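Internal tracking record. Fields below are filled automatically when a chain is submitted to the structure queue. Please do not edit lines marked as system-generated. If the sequence contains nonstandard residues, flag them in the REMARKS field before resubmitting.
Queue: standard
Priority: normal
Entity type: single polypeptide chain
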Amino acid sequence: MRELNNYTFYNSTTDYIDGNTVYVGDIAPEIYTDFETERRRREEDKKRRKKAKARRNAKALRQSRYAAFRLVVAAGLFCAFFVGYVNLQTSIRAHMKNIATLKTEISDMKASNSAAESRINTAVDINEIKNTALTEYGMVYASEGQIVYYDICDEDYMSKYQD
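SYSTEM-GENERATED OUTPUT FOLLOWS
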């Protein structure tokens, strides 16, 4: 005999209420079919809810995978941007350091050039050279007739072949 739980039925043959358990043989056929119909309907509802839940879970899983994929792509792009930014900053610092080094070299070269020019100017006395040329070597200043002026049409060089 099969047992249905959690219902109280009236047993018409003995006029006795049998607690919360009724045996299938004691149930009238129309009530039994109602129970079976109700039980089948509940099972179908349960199956339908289970399938719907499975579909929702599958959809949620797809959406969560897509969201995770988007998150990974966004994180990758952020990391690439950050690495590029750091690389650019490093490159700029290296160029600035190189520029500072070159400016220091230019400053040193200008100082060296000024020192060399000062040494040359102090080592050579123009008046002494002029006196030596006039007295020892017999040189004289050019007269008016000795100076020849040339007109140059093109800005190029000129060669002289005769006096």
